[in-house]
Amino acid sequence: MTPRRRDEQVGPTTATQLADALRARILDGEVAPGAPLREEELALRHGVSRHTVRTALAALAAERIVEAAAYRGARVAALDDASLIALQQLRGALETEAVRLTTETHGSAWPDEVTMPIDAAVDDLARAEASGDWPAITRAHALVHRTIVAAAGSPRIAEAHRLLESEILLLLAHVRPDYPPGALAHEHRAYLVDIMSSGGSAVRAHLDHSTALIRAARSSPDAD
After folding, report:
1. pLDDT in tens, 129-178
2. Helix (H, G, I), strand (E, B) or coil at 73
């Protein structure tokens, strides 16, 4: 048997590729919350085994964007207001600690090496807003928050925060809060200034504001 070369790159598994494809469809809003995800149908559509489908769905269930129940199968998660509030509370805890660690290291005036990646992410958000592409806007918005958390230099906090991202993207795939064009980028430039001076209180105020807008949009007659 020929040994595997050390520099050989191992590609993604079929289950990982399927999970990526399903995640993209779900987070782009192509599959509605509560819609069933039938193993046999997915296996036929993607030309894979049902075992591969089950593995992919289990990965998405771990991200909490798919719900699986015995004898009922899997379906796209439907996040209610209680789930939204719990999600934002956990995000707030992680982002508050990340901001605290960054401020502990750099004080209330973060150096350019910290702020420049955040500013670049906000620039990406501004470009996404100019395009009017809502899925692109939600992803760019998530990147801003991910970059703020990454500035703390804590891999565990960054990993835990990243695991929450799919849930909020799923919610926003079907709900568009009332943000005037360009408002998100403007808000997040101000947010960066606020978190440097006010820390956790700025994080909580920011997330409370977004939670209120999301809840209002969900209750609107025009919501999906």
Report:
1. 999 999 999 999 999 999 999 999 999 999 999 999 999 898 888 888 88
2. strand
Note the pLDDT tens digit of each residue in 179-221: 888 899 999 999 999 999 999 999 999 999 999 999 998 877 6
Is 24 inside any structural domain?
yes
Handedness of CA 81, 86, 90, 96 (dihedral sign): positive
pTM of the full predicted structure? 0.83
The token duo for 33 is 């919350």
The verdict on 71 and 87 lying in the same domain is: no
Per-residue b or e along 59-73, where b marks 16 or more CB atoms closer than 10 Å to that residue's CB: bbeebbbbbeeeeee
CATH number at residue 113: 1.20.120.530
Structural domains of the chain, count: 2
Chain position carrying tokens 């290291």: 105
Q: DSSP code of 5?
A: P
Question: Can you give the residue range of the structural domain that contains 148?
Answer: 81-219
Do both 89 and 39 map to the same domain? Answer: no
Residue 62 sits in a domain whose CATH number is: 1.10.10.10
